[in-house]
Design goal:
Layout (H helix, E strand, L loop, with lengths): L9 H5 L3 H22 L4 H4 L2 H10 L6 E5 L5 H9 L34 H14 L7 E6 L6 H11 L7 E6 L10 H10 L6 H4 L3 E7 L3 H14 L3 E6 L7 H4 L27 H15 L3 E5 L9 H6 L4 E3 L4 H13 L3 E7 H4 L3 H9 L6 E5 L16 H5 L6 E3 L4 H12 L6 E4 L13 E3 L2 E7 L4 E5 L4 H13 L4 E5 L2 E3 L3 H8 L3 E9 L4 H11 L6 E6 L9 H7 L4 H24 L1
Length: 594
Amino acid sequence: MPPLESIHGPADVRALSPAAAQELVPHIRRFLVEKVCRTGGHLGPNLGVVELTIALHRVFESPRDTILWDTGHQTYVHKILTGRAAAFDTLRQPDGLSGYPSRSESEHDVIENSHASTVLSYADGLAKAHHLRGVTDRAVVAVIGDGALSGGMAWEALNNIAAAPHRPVVVVLNDNTRSYAPTIGGIADHLARLRAGDRTPLFEDLGLAYSGPVDGHDIGALEAALRDAAALRRPVVVHCVTEKGRGYAPAEQDEADRFHAVRATPAAGTAQDRTPSPSWTSVFGEELAELGARRPDIAAITAAMLRPTGLAEFARRFPERTFDVGIAEQHAVTSAAGLALGGMHPVVAVYATFLNRAFDQLLMDVALHRAPVTFILDRSGVTGDDGASHNGMWDLSLFQLVPGLRVAAPRDGVTLRRALREAVDVTTGPTAIRFPKGTVSAAVPAVDSVAGMDVLHRTGSPDVLLVSIGTMAGACLDAAQRLTDYGVGVTVIDPRWIKPVAPALVELGLSHRTVLTVEDSGRAGGTGAAVAQAMADAGAPTPVRNLGVPQRFLPHGRREDILARSGLTGQGIFRSAVEALTCHEATATAGAER
């Protein structure tokens, strides 16, 4: 068997004998464990698709045939087989391999999807394009997991694919019975019946051909099923049964999520949510469980991410008030509105990037009805190593568009607990609380308060007002000390509740020579823009400078490096403040001379 580094593309995989292809399997699994445990990344999903990926690249000729993946975190084996094994030491590292498909890396990476349930729509559109352009010699293959199949968008696409028997699409259903945790719901139950031998697949009732269940760890059986599917020249579902975490005992024995993701470690790897230090997620989860004991009206909703969003303890104590809706964020939000209409106070816990998918439901189904729903946005701001699609940097820009929504950005564990208690007490409309990925920040005490806002620092004359948003408190305090040493008076204020802009914050801004807002979110339409608008509406002559993340798709890298490049460090904020003061003084001098 050739070494993995000598596989430069799918042609090398197709050239292998069946025996040599089978010999690749244990080598790839050992390679994945070694490399991914060293860099961190998605281990369990990739261990489960080794044979399936080999079979796909032996039957289809990528990139002429298009192989699309849902979701993209299961493409590590695909990267190996398309010539990128030698670069795996750089996986998820700055300037290294992405943890998801990346069009800039390879012609074999067609879409850069890490939001689930999208691939069938891509496939439907691509098949339509082939039909319209008379292309008949290229296959469209969409690999989708049973977890992603719980998303409504997947069924919208299947509805269209099934209606066009003249447009071939090979849908490869990777059924490992899990997303993070075991897949739930009616579709999961149906797949379980198919695995048990039921011969009445729903897919055939929809008008799709169906093949399976196929042993997803038998390369020969997979190749035969895929070749037969391609030969049908019509939409077909190939139902492959795989085992998440296969071939690595610690993953196989991990009932929580089969080592869905592991942290970087030189040893054997540990599941990503196992950390001795308190995380933002764990602090939220503990507080919600305590509130649930006192408040029987509180319910929790998750979109297939019970443990990653901190709801495991609440679910253990209050299973009847915990609802995992599958990968269905739109449904989660409108279902929460229904719970609120029925007298409950639902708490919807999602990653910030995934709430983007349910913006219309937030706007029209929750906010329009003034439904008391609390949204918890984990992984807000810059997340870093998962790249552009996982940075939670869009929420504050979107939230500004939603009437009646109140938004909190806690700076530490103490203010997170406080914000959650305040949020679930709101009965007149929706609330949202955002916090980043990782270990919770050290407690930052207030030195004073102004109309419910926390003053974190105050020295000298009122020259600069730093409006610190959430976890930017540490950098703002660093900048404040630098400004003080530079002879500039500075106040650092943490509004805590950042939307709507507090009138007292505007008044405080009016009393300073210049105002800087600091947030780890996109600058376009974010909190800083709202503060500047509020100041302008008040007729303030005080200049406002907004510091935040550039409004573009950021490459993967360390959070601290991305923040530094965005000027969101103590030194960067200090420089921006000095520049703002200098510009203000120059403008004032020019005005006086005129």
